[in-house]
Amino acid sequence: xxxxxxxxxxxxxxxxxxxxxxxxLGLVKQKETSDLLRGNAVHYAIxxxxxxxxxxxTTVGLDVLWDMVDEYLSAHxxxxxxxxxxxxxVVDVCRANIKVWHDEVWPQLTPSAVxxxxxxxxxxxxxxxxxxxxxADWEDESGELWDWKNPSRFYEPWEKKRWxxxxxxxxxxxxxxxxxxxxxANGQYQHIPIERTQEHIDAFIEMCWxxxxxxxxxxxxxxxxxxxxxxxxxxWLLDVPAGHGSHISADDAPVTLLYVPLGHDKQDDDPxxxx
Length: 275
Hints:
Lambda Exonuclease, Chain A; 6-stranded mixed β-sheet; two-stranded antiparallel ribbon
């Protein structure tokens, strides 16, 4: 049996295993929000600029980046179901964030890969082969990894350095020692460099294996974590009130989801389906 894990799904599992189970079976549907639109627009412009630099050794100007952001927002805003900010505010924040990236971050970087996908086998135990998949935003010629975040406010650096799953997963999968979070919030820039040692990696691998018994047990529901607004089924069944969890990145937050009650599970005959 093969089980594939994505680091983003592992994050969901650690917040609320039952939500992760329902995501795996396709029982919850993510709604499009203005927060996701903001993050995706900035991410898209950076990706295009990085690919242009990678393939033609040229850098695009700020005006071109702004045009990319505007075009993305115009094309995808019709898909948004939950607006947490007016459209005009989203445009202003995206333009401010991409300017900060252009002025303060990009000059120090030269990409060796942009949007690099990976599939790496963790190992085999008791007949189960465990594989990790993911996509790194930016791999630099320096050997360091970079990831772009667009939350509404800055992170607590010590929390990311201590618990961030993505840095563990990507440093292991891509054989890197340093993972950089570039955080853009309302036109301000926060840099959180994270270093991962072999001890960190070993702990991460064992954590991945600890999920397997629950995944192979064929039981429902999985444990529900009621410790915070984002954990319980009520948190992902209902819209979150304004101000709750506003410190969470749009990239990281469990956004509004549609919930299917227990007993209405879609059958999944492939236990190795990507998560």
